[in-house]
Amino acid sequence: MIKLIKNDLKTCDVLVDEFKQTIQPTNPEKLLFSGVNGRDVYNITAPFLDEGDFIIAGRVEERDSEDSQVYFFVEHNGRWIPREGAPIFDLQDPFVTRIDGELVLGGVETFPSPTIEGALGWRTIFYKGKSLASLKRFAQGPDGMKDLRLVELQNGSIGVLTRPQGKKGGKGKIGFSKISSLDQLTLEVIEVAPLLTGQFKDEEWGGGNEMHVLSNGLLGILGHIASFDKVGKRKYFPMVFVLNPETLEYSDLQIIALRSNFINGPAKRTDLVDVVFSGGLVRKSNGTAVLYAGISDVEAQTVTIQDPFIQYENEENK
Questions:
Q1: Distance between CA atoms of 77 and 82, rounded to whole angstroms?
Q2: What is the pTM of this model?
Q3: DSSP H/E element including 104
Q4: Cα(18)–Cα(7) distance, rounded to whole angstroms?
Q5: Coil/strand/helix, residue 313
Q6: Which phi and psi angles does 6 have, rounded to 5°?
Q7: The CATH number of the domain covering residues in 12-313
Q8: Contact 284, 290 (CB under 8 A)
Q9: How far apart are alpha carbons 257 and 286 in whole angstroms?
Q10: How far, in Å, are 47, 105, 181 from residue 53 at the CA level?
């Protein structure tokens, strides 16, 4: 595999300045949803195929609540509507992949915090099945961990992206491990996954949202990097990097869009205006890619960008 060069750790501000010198995203579009009783739909997946239909999974909730459900939508006359007969899960922030011929769905489950009265805890839950209709719960992540992701590697093993917080991960850092089958996805495997050090300043944080297996076996990681501004407002930026799953070498983080690249709209709260949460990336044959994202914890939008991974596929596979 090609060697990845890792340079100095960079803050959000530095990455934003670098992004502004690149070819900017184009063609922003809002996705329109119906059939959810006026609730917001955001933090969507990219479209995936299930029994002949292209499906988007999305987080559905009232504007003044975080009591969330995951719905599955199909497009009809320019709008996305709930797929008839599809399951509904009491989860946040869905993600999907395919492993060993099966559909794998994940999301974040909330529950009353065992230590803080009136607060919520959270964990990542995993389902698998031949289709949406046959999904069954098979695993869960550690309490307090979001942004767990899985991918089937070229050799049939499974890459596991983690994001511990606290003593090991601070505000949130990315880890990676490999397992040979979904049966090995245990709490211990997740908790001991080594960190990719040097990606985030201690006062900032990030996580992975989707993994793409590139033609040369490298992993293209779509994720986010986040920080607070001077007045305490959250700033979330979609970012990418490339990871060698054998050596754990990885490239620099690269921001691929800003909130200003999308269409203006409402926000769930005033501190969430500048939030873009990466949902999925659809790579095109013409060297571009479509980014699917949650916007300001209210809406779902897309934007067209330059394919951020093609440069790594164009290099010789060593």
A1: 13
A2: 0.95
A3: strand 102-112
A4: 14
A5: helix
A6: -105, 125
A7: 2.115.10.20
A8: yes
A9: 19
A10: 9, 16, 28
Phi and psi dihedrals of 16, rounded to 5? Answer: -65, -45
Measured in whole angstroms, the distance separating CA 61 from the mean position of its chain's CA atoms is: 19
Q: From start to end of 154-233, where are the E strands?
A: 158-162, 175-179, 205-213, 219-228
pLDDT in tens, the chain (318 residues): 456 766 678 999 999 999 999 999 999 999 999 999 999 999 999 999 999 999 999 999 999 998 999 999 999 999 999 999 999 999 999 999 999 999 999 999 999 888 888 788 999 999 999 999 999 999 999 999 999 999 999 999 999 999 999 999 999 999 999 999 999 999 999 999 999 988 999 999 999 999 999 999 999 999 999 999 989 999 999 999 999 999 999 999 999 999 999 999 999 999 999 999 999 999 999 999 999 999 999 999 999 999 999 999 876 444
